[in-house]
Amino acid sequence: MPTDVPAIAAQLDDETLHVWQLAYDPGRGRAPLIALLAGYLGVSAGAVQLTEGPHGRPQLGPAHGDILDLNWSHSGGCALVAIGHGVAPGIDVERRRPRPRALELAQRYFHPAETAWLAAQPIDRREEAFLALWTAKEAVLKALGRGLAFGLHRLEIGLETAVPQLRQLAGDDAATWQLHALDAGPAHVAALAWRGPPRNIRYRILADAG
């Protein structure tokens, strides 16, 4: 674990969310995530207890109390981790690659207003727009602690402005949510969501979380 992680962890307060970008290697699995969390908890990696919620959302075990909440996502060689106090963040990252069936998938699974907006996009921008919708929707669902089974059509994202907007969320007040696009580099698209007031987002790249 890089020595600067504990110092940065000490800067985490109730008005801030930390987002880390890590290199992802399937052979190492969650080891970089656990090493990062160890820096925040002030324990060895072997002492970090990581469990899963009912829908597979990773969470710290009871031994750590409710000091931190977290979420992580990985695609290709990139992983993103969101960490906060008193908030359940949701984060999603997807690798840019050709998705020729983007509109077809949206018509099948997305909210009708999103599908109409996507269909109106120039063909050369449609796959990028689809990824922006997908990552935003996934980030919200992860913050909810729910998976895709919740139904992608049960929430509506607006992307007409630079900041994505959560317009509808079944069974919840969309106005209480925060949603942000993240710059994860030229090869990936990413988004971060949480329920609650705005917070400062501190984004860092961790070269070695081992």
Automatic annotation (TrEMBL):
GO molecular function: transferase activity
Keywords for this protein: Transferase
Pfam families, alphabetized: ACPS
Superkingdom of this protein's organism: Bacteria
4'-phosphopantetheinyl transferase domain residues: 90-191
UniProt cross-references to InterPro entries, sorted A to Z: 4-PPantetheinyl_Trfase_dom, 4-PPantetheinyl_Trfase_dom_sf, P-Pant_transferase_sf
Keyword Magnesium: no
Family classification: Belongs to the P-Pant transferase superfamily. Gsp/Sfp/HetI/AcpT family.
Protein name as it appears in the record: 4'-phosphopantetheinyl transferase superfamily protein
Organism (species): Frateuria flava
Upper taxonomic lineage: Bacteria, Pseudomonadati, Pseudomonadota, Gammaproteobacteria, Lysobacterales
